[in-house]
Amino acid sequence: MSRTEWLSSTDAQNPADIGTRCLTSVEELAESDWLRGPLLLRSPYSKEEVLTFPLVSPEEDDNVRPEVKVKKTEINTPFVARFENFSTWKSLVRAVYNLKKICRLKRGAADSAAFDVEVMQEAEHFILQEVQAFFYKEEIRSLKDGKPVPPSNCIVTLNPFMDKRGTVRVCGRLNQSNLPVDEKKPIIIPGKSHVARILVSHFHSKVYHQGINKCVTCRKLRGKLEHQRMSDLPADRLTPGPPFSAVGVDVFGPWTVAARKTRGGLSHNKRWAVLFTCLTSRVIHIEVIEEMSSSSFINALRRFVSLRGPVKEMRSDRETNFLGALDAIQADAVYKLPIRDYLRNNRITWTFNPPHASHRGGSWERMIGISRKILDAMLLNPNAKQLSHEVLCTFMCEVYAIVNSRPICLLSCDPDSPYVIRPSMLFTQKDFTDIPPQTCGDI
To answer: Are residues 167 and 285 in the same domain?
Structure first.
């Protein structure tokens, strides 16, 4: 029997099979490989020849596991770190209170209202002691040994001492008073601890958010208003040109005027005003209209163009009378005149501001506010109580004359430059400054 044949025969023999398969007799079991050992150990070949196996590279053998090194690290988490899992002082005290109450009830303590108060106070005192033990280790060690706190310590100015329960307190000058101990000798709480933050937040909420700048509710109630950065000015505000080439328009009012006399008194109607603002020279023009309709506005626009000259671009908000006026102009609804062709031939464009964006019309909204103030002062006159259409038109002319005489640049303190640039000077090339006549006695 060759060695190759012998090895092939031993591959089919497995000594473990005898333990799971039946044998016919006891003698067969005694002569089996189960008790005598495998045939490999009883072969006629030398042990060196039989037990020699080819070496297998560990990288190629799947049964060889690489060496794994495991490092065990022990982390000792302080007990105070568990307090950070609670966001409020009430929840932290309630958790410690429940643990202490369960422990004392298991020891046979009787549950009562006084018992609950005692356990609650004990829980609060336990939390503060644990915080002090973590942050003031050296200070507590010095106080227990009867030594003073080192001068370089942060709490040395508080003159700390330790009471009978082992709590570090402030030694103040109120020892002879009848105040409670917590007020005469307050407990020192580390300001950098989580307990200090939730304590401050607890009492801050009890006084309804008074005086903390990091509180979200306080910022909502008393925070400063944020201002959005303004965008660039449109091109028609910056492009030089003749007055009223680029115009902003808006309507304001109304005012009650006496329309006609009747047997019972006067018949009153309402009047509005259309304000045209030059976006470059800042000159304004006001036209009075009888109703808030597209036709009234178109008539006012025609009077304005006839007096002030052609307009290149108009800006306004999205009021219904403006939108209706634009539709009427495009449809030639006013006296069937070729207004659309006129706007097209003169290259007049009408731009509307986006919806709900009144700030885009600030250049003419500001002029409306100034005009209202001047007109309100005019109407204080008792003779102006019964307004007529003619009187209101006269007032409007005086209003925009006053507005156009306002300064549009910084006032100079130089006595050699007494004149101030006004919108009316750019528009009419005249100075309407009333300078009293000078006499020798005035000098």
So the answer is: no
Q: What distance in Å separates the CA atoms of residue 334 and residue 294, rounded to the nearest whole number? A: 9
Of 7-16, 243-252, 287-296, give the range with the top mean pLDDT: 243-252
- Domain range for residue 367? 243-404
Alpha-carbon gap, residue 244 to 310, rounded angstroms: 8
Q: Are residues 123 and 183 in the same domain?
A: yes
Question: With contact defined as beta carbons under 8 Å apart, do 206 and 199 qualify?
Answer: no
CA distance 402 to 370: 10
Assign residue 371 the CATH number of its domain: 3.30.420.10
Whether residue 439 lies inside any domain: the answer is no
Specify whether 356 is located in the same domain as 264.
yes
243 Cβ contact list (under 8 Å, min separation 6): 278, 280, 281, 283, 308, 309, 426, 427
Which residues lie across from 285 on neighbouring strands? Answer: 276
Q: Answer whether residue 66 is part of any domain.
A: no
pLDDT, one tens digit per residue, over 347-406 is 778 888 887 777 778 888 889 999 999 998 988 877 666 788 888 999 999 999 999 988
Q: Which of 206, 235, 258 is the last residue of a domain?
A: 206
Q: What is the b/e burial string over 266-298, where b = at least 16 CB atoms within 10 angstroms of the residue's CB?
A: eeeeebbbbbbbbbbbbbbbbbbbbebebbbbb
Domain match, 281 and 333 both:
yes
Considering the domain architecture, whether residues 173 and 252 belong to the same structural domain is answered as no
Could you give the CA distance from residue 302 to residue 305 in angstroms, rounded to a whole number?
5
Q: Which of 188, 206, 224 is the last residue of a domain?
A: 206
DSSP 264-308: TEEEEEEEEEEEEEETTT--EEEEEESSSSHHHHHHHHHHHHHHH
How many whole angstroms separate alpha carbon 328 and alpha carbon 345?
17
Query: Among 20-24, 97-101, 193-197, which is the least confidently predicted range?
Result: 20-24
End-to-end CA gap in the chain: 149
419 located within any domain? no
**By the 8 A CB rule, do 132 and 155 touch?**
no
Whether residue 416 lies inside any domain: the answer is no
The pTM for the full model equals 0.49
**What six digits make up the tokens of 20?**
């799971």
Total structural domains in the chain? 3
